[in-house]
Task: structure prediction
Amino acid sequence: MASSFQRNSTLTAQVAEKGMTIQKGHLYVAPPEHQLMVKNNRILLTTGPHENKYRPSIDVLFRSAAVHYRNRAIGIILSDYLRMVLRGCIL
Result:
């Protein structure tokens, strides 16, 4: 998924690794079967429980971002549905 984002964005996209420092202009993708969280400007990865049937779960990531960054955090959710809609508009 990171390579797909990299091809279609000017952001640097990469699979998140434990302990990475979060950098401006970068897009981080959770590795399969890992929960991605942020704390003290670093990435945390765990193989903790599924949340709402998913791992990775956006709930876990967004909750940790809200705690750490408070009102300076934003979240963007991309889904296959959105991709199909956008693809339909572009064609």
About this structure: The chain has three helices and four strands.
